[in-house]
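Quick note —
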Amino acid sequence: MLKKRRGGHVRPNPSGEPAHAARRRLPRPQWLLVAVVFLMFCCVLLTNGLVRSEIGVDARGAASDGPDGHVPPAVSAGGPVVDLTHGQPRTYAMPPKTVALTFDDGPDPEWTPAVLAVLAKHHVPGTFFVVGANVARHPEVVRRIRAGGSEIGVHTFTHPDLRRMSPVMVEREIAETQLALAGATGEMSYLVRPPYSSESSAVDDAGFDVISRLAREGYVTAFVDVDSNDWQRPGVAGIVRDSIPADGQGGVVLLHDAGGDRAQTVEALDRLIPEVQADGFTFTTVSAGTGLPVANFPAGPSDLLLGRTMLAAVVEPVTLVVPAHNEKECIAATVRSLVAGDHPVEVVVVDDGSTDGTADIVEALGLDGVRVIRRANGGKASALNPGSRPPATTSW
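Predicted structure written out below.
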């Protein structure tokens, strides 16, 4: 669970649970099966969403052409980093001849390590705005980002246009990305970059509403003021040219480490960095260049547990235990729904002394990965542990 710390940035709730959690009542026994199956079904849905989600690629101009009537001039005419956490808009820009290289849409198992290798070669950090679904697929790559001295920001979980989503869905996109980060690195981030955004001058009323709501949760939004246009693959020379701030100014540069073939981006970085360093430029992260606090901070105990559970569900087969006592009317549909997803699951139906043929129905389905454990009646709560007494017999 997240809350704002002093200064307005997102911090984990130290307790990890609401104060009234200890007073929650246990479900009545007759609802236990319903509750367990419902939780299992939610886990399968979440896993399928992680595995099947498709990530788009940011493109300049996807946002509106300019601000609408409710966007404060301090935002539309200010720097690329927008902090609304204090009530009044504050914006920040890079100092002269200072560059923050930012990378969207990763991590990618091929291109993110290639980008990191170039940054390490030239002793330069970056800021990576990651997609939660990709974090869940490739947590080891995210750990490499942090180990190399770069920072991480949030780029949503499935890369939607947040302006077209309900507040509840926006919150879920951000929260699930934070959990993925917590599971992968043990850390979270207060930096956010909405997909399909570009310069702060292009923020419209709908976009301003999104970043305002995110600010109330402690998030600082990082737009860009230099677009490399690498998503168009204009050639290495073109990417280098478009990545250099004009007239010795500083800049937050938009690049990509995922979403397609990034060979041109990698090669352009290897040329860009020494070229502008020779011209007196220095490289930094978004937070360091703007004087903001360090973007990444330790996740709390609850977020760590949930995040690690999420990643385990994505990268490993899942075992679902279904306690059942006289469930002949619904057991076949329940089991079929649990094995219908794309993620590998094992379903263990623990038949708790049924007298209506529940176990026989499951066995007759003949489904791969479905196992039946028959046991004398001991109550559905004890049936959640297939190894508990009374003795059981197993069949496939």
